[in-house]
Amino acid sequence: QVQLVESGGGLVQPGGSLRLSCAASGFTFKNYDMRWYRQALGKERELVASVGVFGVGSNYADSVKDRFTIYRVDAKNTVYLQMNNLKPEDTAVYYCQGGPGAYWGQGTQVTVSS
Q1: Over the stretch 57-99, which tens digit does the pLDDT of each residue have?
Q2: HSE (side-chain half, CA atoms, 13 Å) at 101
Q3: Contact in structure between 94 and 81 (CB atoms under 8 Å)
Q4: How far is CA 23 from CA 12, 26, 33, 87, in A?
Q5: How far is it, in rounded angstroms, from Cα 69 to Cα 64?
Q6: Do 52 and 58 touch, CB atoms closer than 8 A?
Q7: Quick one: how far is CA 93 from the chain centroid?
Q8: How far apart are the first and last CA of the chain?
Q9: Cβ burial 52-79 (10 Å sphere, 16+ → b, else e)
C-alpha cells in the first residue's frame, strides 16, 4: 500500500536549520510531482513547496522563498525540504503529499522558538 513517512522535525531556535525527509513506498515515486504542506495551529493547511518529476519545476510559497529548498532523490524514493533561517512563524506540522491518489503522510512537527 502507499506510504509517505515524514521525519526530521523538531525544536530549533530562530535562524536555525532543519531538513525534513519524506520516504515514499507503494507507487512509482519518480513518476509523480511531490509537495510539502504545513498546518499551523488554528490555521488552514498551506502549500509550502512542490517539485516536479526529474526535479524540474520547483515552486515555493512567497513566505519561504530563498529560505527553503525542495529536492528529490528518486533512487531513494525520498523528497526533502531543507529549511534555513527558520522563523517562529514557520512553526507547524509539515506534511508531504504525492502519488497517484495525492496521498498524505502523517506529518512531522517543526517548532521554532528560543
Answers
A1: 999 999 999 999 999 999 999 999 999 999 999 999 999 999 9
A2: 11
A3: yes
A4: 22, 11, 14, 25
A5: 9
A6: yes
A7: 10
A8: 40
A9: eeeeeeeebeeebeeebbbebeeeebbb
- Phi/psi of residue 55, each to 5°? 75, 15
DSSP state of 54: G
Question: Tens of pLDDT along 10-34?
Answer: 999 999 999 999 999 999 999 999 9
> Which pLDDT tens digit goes with each residue over 34-50?
999 999 999 999 999 99
Grid coordinates belonging to 73: 532523490
Q: Which helix (H) or strand (E) holds 7?
A: strand 3-7
In angstroms, the CA 98 to CA 91 distance is 22
